[in-house]
Amino acid sequence: MKRPRIAVSRLAAAAAALTITATACSGLNSASGEQEFSGQTLTVAGTWADAEGQNFRKVLDGFTKKTGAKVKFASSREQGQDDFALFIRDLLKSGKVPDVAMVPQVGVLQQFAQKGWLEPLPPRVELEAARNFALVWQNYGSVRRIFYGLYYKASHKSTVWYDPKAFEKADVVPPKTYAEMIDSGGKLARAGTPAFSVAGKDAWPLTDWFENIYLAQAGPANYAKLATNEIGWTDPTVIKALKTFGKLFKDNKLVAGGGNEALRTDLNESVGAVYGKKPKAAMVYEGDFVAGIISGAFKRKVDDDADFFSFPPVGKDKQAPVISGGDAAVAMKSGKNKDLAMSFIEYLASPKAAEIWAKQGGFLSPNINLNLNAYPDETTRKVAKSLVDAGEAVQFDMSDQAPGDFGGKPGAGEWQLLQEFIRDPSDPEKTAQKLDQAASKAYLDASATGTTG
């Protein structure tokens, strides 16, 4: 299944439509300009809470300052709901549907579009997206060639974070290949520090580990096929990747405490094992958001105390993986103020809206026109540049593309089976069979209810 692409002719038609309707269209491109929506209220729903929620509200304040519109933000996490799709379904049932939803998974975006809950984004938003984003991000926001979602916030999930002092002590340098990374892990262990701390308790970091290994080893074509269920989880490429992943947990010197310790370690604890007061490991794999944990939870200066390298390729003539995720702004069809919603999403597509959160930290944007100097530290600038430079090579998080019962449910599906696997990685073929059975059921159920793309 090929990913949808936005045709040049479609953009040309959008440009013509925009020219014709410029005087009639409201919002950021309208003739009336500033404060056009004074006295109106926009409702936005998303997952962000705590510091992220506060930073996003600053972005909303920027929209208010520009347009005069008041913005109310409803956070699913602040209301105790971790399942964003369920959160939106409940709002729909209660008649409190938001004008805009910040959808955290591409599979959920596809689900909402297929249910008829979303309003296609108009030409003016599509053109703003075309100016500021690589085509791959527009494609991930499209379902059956219809543009529904504008990716505002992204993550770079192919970064390995390390303690420069531990590397210096063991006389190792950032590796260029996966084999070099494992070899460096052995040197670090012999110098007194286990190589990795792994956040197995949270489970989702295990899916990210597997996805990076799979993409780096099997290549983008197979990755796309597995992500869309075109090949099964018993495919030889899957078994090979599981064997590669499992080798990490056969030696307690590579993963601090081995699989059992990993299953007791959440993400913050895994970062603390490298950057806390009593380091237990030299490296921790996860996305760019690790930098925010380092500076926030452990009060370390990222540029001084931390560094990262790209997740390395696995095997000869392979490319380094670039896996991302993100949050897309969609307009709900049953929202009360569609024009205001579209103007807000157009605003989110601008470099200015990205700059507001970038300055606060804990944020990465796929906007190619955002000045990298907006980021608060050199390390984040390097991560952001790596993501933007990847362009069309970016692959979206595989588990986010799967039905939730398989790719995103605690205690079930891929999460549970990979937890079981790192506890005992001796039989990757059996794990592959279980993964295949769970995926087949989830995709079949999703197909029957029209909830998968």
From TrEMBL:
Q: Which domain of life is it from?
A: Bacteria
User: Residue span of the signal peptide, if any?
Assistant: 1-24
Protein's UniProt keywords contain Signal? yes
Gene3D superfamilies attached to this UniProt entry: Periplasmic binding protein-like II
Keywords attached to this Swiss-Prot or TrEMBL record, sorted alphabetically, are:
Signal, Transport
Q: Which family does it belong to?
A: Belongs to the bacterial solute-binding protein 1 family.
Q: What is this protein called?
A: Carbohydrate ABC transporter substrate-binding protein
